[in-house]
């Protein structure tokens, strides 16, 4: 399929790197493609970033048939544009598509479309370590219909946003709050898919956490409310004694690409890794016994984010001394060095696109 390109004459200006937050500034163009039963995915185009119209009856507004991804493009000191494990994002997007009865994408084509868009928007890619061009592919259901069924028509978009750190704290430790009253997802549901409803379901507890001064919620499993699943926008790791423990993928956790990368690097470095059930009580007792060395989250937006405090009902623990722990630092440095082209890509995670 040929991508039709319509350029806007009105181009914006990228904010200074130090002024970049997360997800508020968008580039000049976006990629769009439509789906219907007869033509499949068709009419791929790059056009000016702008509002678009949909019927108020479009199914996405009513039943949330929507999936998305999040990945980043990085600029190296030599001016190369690099993607980190981007194919894995589209593979995960197709898994989410299957889970939500959305037609899958041709991964090669979606990758090409994204690369063409990123190349066109090169001037929007910030250059400082810690900044990048966030890529948000998403698919929405567009049938104007109020009955509950899967839509027959969809739209696929890719939008781009130059970003800095996800958390206001930057790389400083964040405080997280364990929800006792709410759960995010249950096995057999859609927790392992990157679908809009999972984030809608997280908002109420997220607001409760925020009121108490916490950055994000750490979710427990929905059945027993004992075992740690993940944090709002990241997977979670605990360094207990000399073992890196992270919840195993039970079906209700997002299989994070950064999570896999941390596990791969840890094994390569000879750190013991345990993917298993881990109870919140176990974390608190490990802390009491002085065995909980570090806690950190992993995610595309969050990168590696040290956790300095965990609150669970009226119990609270502090981890570390208020500065990022040694292990979190090591993963942050190694991952970002690969992503920004400052270290050799020993794992073949990088694709240079210019
Ligand atoms: N868990 C949730 C709920 C997320 O939204 C994200 C972010 O994408 C992650 C985990 C981390 O996944 P990844 O490392 O692929 O970005
Ligand atoms: C990401 O890390 O890419 C995410 O999607 C997290 C969040 C912004 C939803």
Walk me through what this model shows:
Helix 2 crosses helix 3. It contains eight helices and 18 strands. The protein is α+β, with helices and mostly antiparallel strands and 354 residues long. The relative contact order is 0.15. It folds into two domains: 160 residues, D-amino Acid Aminotransferase, Chain A, domain 1 (2-Layer Sandwich); 166 residues, Alpha-Beta Barrel (D-amino Acid Aminotransferase, Chain A, domain 2), CATH 3.20.10. Strands 1, 2, 3, 4, 5, 6, 7, 8 and 18 form a nine-stranded mixed sheet that branches. Strands 9, 10, 11, 12, 13, 14, 15, 16 and 17 form a nine-stranded mixed sheet that branches. It binds pyridoxal-5'-phosphate and 2-OXO-4-methylpentanoic acid.
Proportion of beta-strand residues: 25-35%
Write the CATH architecture name of the largest domain: Alpha-Beta Barrel
Oligomeric grouping of the chains? single chain
Model regions low in confidence, pLDDT < 50 over at least 5 residues? none
Write out the CATH superfamily name of the largest domain. Answer: D-amino Acid Aminotransferase, subunit A, domain 2
Number of domains: 2
Highest CATH level, the class of the largest domain? Alpha Beta
Question: How many strands, what sense, and barrel or not for the largest sheet?
Answer: 9 strands, mixed
Radius of gyration: 21 Å
Percent helix, as a range, is 10-25%
Mean pLDDT: 97
| Overall 3D form | globular
Question: What is CATH's topology name of the largest domain?
Answer: D-amino Acid Aminotransferase, Chain A, domain 2
Molecules bound to protein: pyridoxal-5'-phosphate, 2-OXO-4-methylpentanoic acid
Structural class: alpha+beta
Tally the helices: 8
The end-to-end distance, rounded to whole angstroms, is 21 Å
SSE arrangement, N to C: EEEHEEEHHEEEHHEEEEHEHEEEHE
Number of DSSP E strands = 18
């Amino acid at each position: 399929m040929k991508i039709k390109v319509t350029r806007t004459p009105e181009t914006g200006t990228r904010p200074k790197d130090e002024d970049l937050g997360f997800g508020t500034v968008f580039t000049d163009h976006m990629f769009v493609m439509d789906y219907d039963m007869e033509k499949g995915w068709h009419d791929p185009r790059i056009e000016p970033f702008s509002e678009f119209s949909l019927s108020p009856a479009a199914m996405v507004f009513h039943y949330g048939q929507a999936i998305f991804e999040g990945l980043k493009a990085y600029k190296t000191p030599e001016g190369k544009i690099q993607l980190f494990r981007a194919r894995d994002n589209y593979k995960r997007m197709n898994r989410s598509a299957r889970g939500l009865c959305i037609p899958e994408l041709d991964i090669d084509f979606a990758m090409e479309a994204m690369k063409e868009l990123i190349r066109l928007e090169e001037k929007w890619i910030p250059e400082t370590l810690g900044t990048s061009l966030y890529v948000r592919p998403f698919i929405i259901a567009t049938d104007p219909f109020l009955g509950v069924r899967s839509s027959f028509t969809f739209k696929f978009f890719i939008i781009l946003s130059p970003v800095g750190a996800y958390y206001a704290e930057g790389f400083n430790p964040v405080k997280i709050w364990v929800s006792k009253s709410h759960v995010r997802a249950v096995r057999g549901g859609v927790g392992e898919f990157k679908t809009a409803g999972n984030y809608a379901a997280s908002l109420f507890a997220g607001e409760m956490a925020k009121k108490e001064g916490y950055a994000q919620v750490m979710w427990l499993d929905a059945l027993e409310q004992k075992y740690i699943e993940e944090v709002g926008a990241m997977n979670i790791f605990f360094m207990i004694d000399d073992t890196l423990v992270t919840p195993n993928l039970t079906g209700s956790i997002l299989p994070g690409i950064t999570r896999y990368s941390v596990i791969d690097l840890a094994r390569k470095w000879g750190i013991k890794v345990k993917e298993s059930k881990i109870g919140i009580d176990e974390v608190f007792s490990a802390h009491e016994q002085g065995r909980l060395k570090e806690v950190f989250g992993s995610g595309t937006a969050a990168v590696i984010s040290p956790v300095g405090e965990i609150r669970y009902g009226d119990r609270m623990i502090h981890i570390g001394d208020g500065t990022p722990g040694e292990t979190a630092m090591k993963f942050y440095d190694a991952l970002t060095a690969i992503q920004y082209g400052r270290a050799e890509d020993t794992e073949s995670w990088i694709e240079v696109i210019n």
